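Memo to structure team: turn this sequence into structure tokens by end of day. - J.P.
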Amino acid sequence: MLNIAFDLKNQIISDLEYSSNFENVSYESLLIMGMGGSGVAGDVMKLLSNEISDKNIFVQKDYSIPKQVKKFKPLCLFISYSGNTEETLSGISDAKTNNFDWMVISSGGKLIDMAKNEGKEYIQIPNGLQPRAAFGYLTLAVSKIIDVAEGSNYISQLNDVSLYIDKLSEKGNESDINKLSIDICESINKKTVILYSGTDMSRVVSSRWKTQINENAKSKAFIGNLPEVHHNEILSWDADKDGSKKNYIVIFIRDQNEHPQIKKRFELTKDLIGEKVNITEVNIANQESTLKTLLELVLLGDLVSLNLASKLAVDPNNIDIIEKLKKLLGG
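Reply from structure team:
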């Protein structure tokens, strides 16, 4: 699956299918609903929108629209790669009950059918992938929405980022970014991963790394955010220090845009728990833009998860337990 990770550079400059009136999309408040590998696109969209505007962007990963969001009467964006995600379809039902306008991003399924049948705007992305492998398509889709509704230039940025990622990955398995991912993978091995971040961008990246390690490598990973970690979680490393060294690894996802106190907190964290648990730091040097940094770190994390899957001899494509759960939920 390494080829799918490296395909990120192609996905973010692909031709997608848009509904006929898509260029007229606008909003003052937007609610984004989606789950799993599809839902992360909502996090990306909120991150990018917050960078350029003060519009209300809400991300909800659940079955229904929160009461405190309903008062804004938002345009609702439903994202499901398959188009058949239970929670997302429930969200559309809630939007209809409240007479909210809505649109969808999907590769097909019920979401696209509903949008076409009811005259709603949509973006249709290529099918045939697992949702988590469509990160580039989803990022392209939400970037297009922001450009149309908020007058940004993220699509143009994606063209530049594609060239950058192409250069990063031109040697494939022998590229520096893949070699770095293997080094990180070797440090993880069979340990539980704890990801610490300190900005909105690095939180999105940490969430992506977590889910990729969970799904591709079938391994445990959890997230902590600074400064909140320093108000509770930092104490958790005091007990069973030998067990922590043996069974856990902390990975710092760094961002050059961190608040000065966050930078200081990262350094203090190393000093305070460095002898209790192994720490690896991921800090990319060239952070010219949020979008470029985000996508480079996502690519690195995807490669880490896939190389870890290979090291642990597990199939990254196997989602049998998730499919079994879906059947059980469906009765």
